[in-house]
Amino acid sequence: MSSWRAVIWLLLYLFSASAPTLAQTNAACGLPAEGSIREATYTLTADCAQTGKLTIANRIPAQTVTINGGGHTIRMDGDETAIIWGPGAILNLNNVTIDSNNKSHISGAIRAGTITANNVSFINNNGGVAFRSEQATLTNVYFAWNRSSGFSLGGNGSAIQGNAIDSLTLTNAVFRNNIGGGGAVAMLAGATLTTSGCLTLSGNVPYDVYAPDGTTWTNTSTGACTGTIGNGDQAVIPAPALMTCGFPASGNLDASATYTLTADCALTGVYYISEDVSIRVIGNGRAIRSSRTGYSFITAATSSLRLENVALEGIRFYNWGNFAAERIKASATNGGILLNMGEARIANGLFESNTSRTTGGRSVALAYNAYQKGDISFTDASFRGNTGGLGVLATFGAAIELNGCIHFEDNSPADTYIYAGRGGVVNDNRASDCDATIVDPLIPVLPPAPNAPPSDSPEAKCNNPPCELPAAPKQDECNLKLGAIGVICYPNVQPPVAQVWQIRRNPEGDHLPAVGTFILAVDQPHVEAVAEGFVACSPGGRVAVRTGLPPEIRYFFEISPKYEEELKIPRRYIVISKGPTFEGKVHNLVLDHRLDGPVFGFVDTYGGPPGSDCAKNQPAAAKTIPLPTPTPVYAPPVQPQAPQPDGSIVHIVQAGDTISAIAVAYRVHQLDIIMVNQLEKMGRWIYPGQELIIREAA
């Protein structure tokens, strides 16, 4: 008997040594500080500063723990991976705020088998999800400022992740500024989500709710929430008020808008651009400045942000959506200007004196394909004096395109860098005949000079009146580049007229508007009068307009399979040529039938001035006249076209379409469109009515 007693005592000792220590109630707030808890109800008497993890003991049947918060907060002050942990337990939360205090809870700040929450706020989780559960029913809940550590659609949600067996029911919920993973709520295959009552989705990136095929989201919500939500939080935050410079103060931008700057702007916070919101900023040559080291703009996956004619000082962008910028000067950032996980297109930009915060970063832009996007295109840009990181431009599996005039000067340690082992490509399509580097692309807004003549008067249009030169064209009429050093403009008249202009910096200083030098102009009757040969040329013959295909140009088309059948079709070819460049190239733009007709092709040849043999129709000596401030024209969004009966998708190009915009509309890579359709010059020349194969027949 004594031996049996010894065995029993030994077993009891071992059990007591291995069993979890039951937590004792923390008199300071009414919740245990740490340890194991069993079925119980806790009523908070004050805010709780948790330094350890509470583990709900594993028992069959499942243990039920109820926490009545009384409006108080449970804040995670320790370094544990969760606040409350009970994968097989039932947890009821009422009238409480779960504040993760920016700690990292990869498996969820709250983890239970079943969660019921009423009037609860989940905030400030950093590195995982706010909670994880196999079944959850949530009423009047608030999720804000939660971040996921993952960068993929299949990764964690920033607020809630739905697993394969999860069932989530939300009634009256607000999700605000939850960032990373697949979205504020990320559903995985087999999960179900039901939302009803009010629902507010604001500032979440990349998506509000990511619910791919294999998941079920039933949404019967009736609109945005009002009043208070969660544990006494505000369901509605007011839209940012306009500052005196014409731009909103920091905050969430939940409605599409255009902002025109009237003065320089000093930004103090972060702007969250919500899904399906389009923001356009017309800078008027003004500056937007920030002393923040973090990002100033964070854009959701289906949002768009467009900047025009603006200086950026210390401004950084975290982009999941569509980012476009034209005529920008970006400087003084620490950590890189752009982290791009969406689509970005930048034209006519100067990037100087930017630095990388880390040795593995970039000083200007990173193209990152974590979401099967991330491509960045630069057209006409200078990169000067940018230092640190792995390079000025870095790609992490995405494509960086360099088009037009691209200059790198005094950057270190490298201009471009492709991350080893992660793929990516730098497509170098730079023009070889660039003018001087971009010094300042901005066009300032200047007051009229005292006693200046009206802008539409002949005296204002010509240096030496009386003047027979054509009026300076509007920028939206100059839609074709002739190489990188000239533009072809089409005034809105009939019969069509084509003007060739040289655009250069103002010789009196970069603070003045750019100037245009008129070179020559022809109209359709002039073209029709010449069966084959020269129609007009400039003094010295550097620019020439002719009809018919000279042998050297025809040769280039004949050796391309793309043009083999096209050359058999009777047509009047119109060739506008400019050159030679410093390396002897002549740029030849070939039009079909009409001066304003479709582009047949674009060919570079070698030799002297294209109009050296032109002896007639010499225009008067060119004179320099000021160009008006450009007024950009924006094409409507590309409308995707339905599949054909054989499964193929063919896009009919509309006026204003671009390859990048078409790629975004169909959610394909623009390089795929270029390759399938054998487009030259990276798709630079497409025309209305052209058929582009987006997806081939099955």
Key features of this structure:
mainly beta, 46 strands, 10-stranded parallel beta sheet, 698 residues, 11-stranded parallel beta sheet
Distance between the termini: 82 Å
Strand content: 35-45%
Number of distinct helices = 6
Which ranges are low-confidence, i.e. pLDDT below 50, for 5 or more consecutive residues? Answer: 4-22, 446-469, 617-635
Number of strands: 46
Overall pLDDT confidence: 81
Q: What class do helices, strands and sheet pairing give?
A: mainly beta
**Rg, please?**
32 Å
User: What general form does the structure show?
Assistant: elongated
Please outline the major beta sheet.
11 strands, parallel
- Multimer state: single chain
Helix % is: under 10%
Structure write-up:
This protein is mainly β. 7% of the residues lie in helices and 39% in strands. Strands 1, 2, 3, 4, 5, 6, 7, 8, 10, 12 and 14 form an 11-stranded parallel beta sheet that branches. Strands 18, 19, 21, 22, 24, 26, 28, 30, 32 and 34 form a 10-stranded parallel beta sheet that branches. An 8-stranded parallel beta sheet has the order 17-20-23-25-27-29-31-33, with no helix packed on it. The longest helix has 17 residues. The termini are far apart.
